[in-house]
Structure formats: structure tokens, C-alpha cells
Amino acid sequence: MAILVKSFRRSWPGVEIIFRSDSGFCRHMMLDWYDKHGIKYIVGQAQNGRLNKLLESTMEQVKEGYKVSGEKQRYFTEFLYKAGSWRHERKVIGKAEVTQLGENPRYVVTNLEGNSADLYEKMYCARGNMENRIKEQQLELFADRTSCHKWWPNQFRMVLSSLAYILVEYIRDKFLLGTELAAAQVGTIRLKLFKIGAIIIRNTRRVRFLLSSSYPYQHLWGIIAKKLALE
Predict the structure, then answer these.
(1) Rounded CA gap, 124 and 110, in Å?
(2) Quick one: which H or E segment has residue 184?
(3) 143 and 54 in one domain?
């Protein structure tokens, strides 16, 4: 993280850096480092008895609302909390939620200012979309193929996978807008747009690349190819 922060601030001296993650990264040494270096953060905090006690009154209101309406109820609150390993108190946002499956308390620790519901739903929960993009690269562009015993070959595979994702994302954002593949995942684009049956015929003067005439997306492929040629 220190390397990334130094690199970002070298390139963009005035940029605001916000660290967002789930509770697996809620470690006191990391939070202390962010506080020391002026990094904003919003990080998941695993629930425990003390946190549940602080959220208890809000949870009672939510349970009462659920009894009356029979529909999912969700309230947000915030309070100061200090874990045993923390040097000082920090702001924690608590989500008190009750559904037909029961109580669902959640917590995030943050040094961001703003409305609790907005911070949780718009800032913290937005990480889910980023996790989906990471999963997309892992599953559809083989970023999880790190089976080599040496570090550099695995790193090189990750670089190739990342470059492939950037290329597909560029095509999706710039050339697939308004088409049936505008919101398609990488795997769908790779399967429908790139994975085409073909025959290569080679002689002494030329190499011919013949695509399948029964390819169902040839019209869309042709449009994109022409747009790419103009870039």
C-alpha cells in the first residue's frame, strides 16, 4: 500500500486516496498507517458482542418496524468504538437490518465524513462491483493461472490477463454501446465476439484467414472491426 500511495501522490499530488475493503483488511496497523499518512478509509468490521450492544437500541427499532410492516427494515447509525488493539476510538457505522431470514447487523469503520446510509450504501457497498470485475478477470481471462513454481512467470501471466481485460473493457465501453453486448461480461464477449471458427489458408504469396460464414454475430463483429480500424 505504501508503494501505491507514494506513486499516486507523485503523479497526482493533490489527489484524495480512499481505501475501501472488507473486514479481512481491518487491522490496527493498517488503520494507524492510514491515519498517519492522511488516507481516507471505509473498511468492514466483523461483528462482536460489544458492537452488537452499541447497535442494540437501533436494532430494536428495526425489529419493531418489521413486526408492523412484515417487510425488510434497515436503519443506520454511527458511534465511536475502540477495539482492544486500537490506539484510539474510531467512527463506526452500524447497519441494523431485519429480513424474513432474521437479524443482519453489519459494521464499517471509517474516517470519512457524511451521511451514514450514503457512506455505507454508496461508498462501501460499491466495492461489490469492483469485486465482480476482479472475479470476471479471474474466471474469464485466467488470472488465477498462477501454478508455476517461480514468481516472475506467474506475474507475467497476471500482466497478460490484466492487459486482456483492459482491451475487452475498452471495446465494451467504446464500441459495444447500444448493442446487445453493451452490458455483457468479459466471458460472454470472448465467447460470442472473439471465439470464431476459422480456416487459415497459406501459399507462397499470401495467407488467407477465412471466418465461418455461419457465425451469428458477424454483422456486429464487422461494425466493431470497422470502428477499430478508424482508431
Answers:
(1) 10
(2) none
(3) no
